[in-house]
Amino acid sequence: MCFLCDLKSSSNTAQSDADNGTRWHPRRAFLMAAGIAVTGPALAQVDVGGPSSVRTLVSAEDLESSAKQQYSQVLADAKSKNALAPNDHPQLQRLHSIARRLIPFAPKWNPRVSNWRWEVNLIGSKQINAWCMPGGKIAFYTGILDQLKLNDDEVAMIMGHEMAHALREHARERMAKSKVTGIGLSVASALLGLGQLGDVAANLGTQLLSLKYSRDDETEADLVGLEIAARGGFLPEASVNLWRKMLGANGNGGPSFLSTHPSGGNRIQELEANLPKVQHLYQEAKRG
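Predicted structure:
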């Protein structure tokens, strides 16, 4: 059984959006606690294999703690610029509604989700960007919603994709591989007591928002996100429409999203090939 709940946070006073001058009123953050894993989850329909074992060289607890601190800093910075959306903002409520439909299907991909406190916030910015930090800390920028004119199905594909990066612990794996490469032959001795590896998560902070994922990471996030969204009742074909919009966006070198989410020439083709695998999940969800 999966439990979702909204947790209250203190109200904050904001004046105007730093980007567009829209007045935003007192807010409270959106938090959701994912409880025990979904009872008897169906087997995954997409094939992404098992997670990399190298990720275990970095503490998940430390990484999630670092992510929580970085997330708080991002929100504080947005608040200082009057760019943090209040809880009653229509676009934020829309994100909350979509998240509620996706989060119940997250535990099957990572047992740590039972300890996560999901949070979704909206930041007023022209950036075409969105992300999810380890531990379920999600942020969307108004630019990605407004400039790409995303419908709910397309937003769900982005959110599912970002959730998948966290669920598959791609940041943890990236940092572990980076540290192993850096210490070279000394890794054998370091493994005995972790040594420098133990400091990776604690020093991660500012690197989370600029971390660039590998092509394999992107494929996993695309497919896991596609399945999560389909199980939540969102149209699978929206994943293809989304990436066509993303790749078609221009100005200032393209979407910020693409700077940390590199595009592959076969990305859309891979998604199209996997649509039949999840179509029945979408149909079952719509039947309710």
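Summary: The chain has ten helices and four strands.
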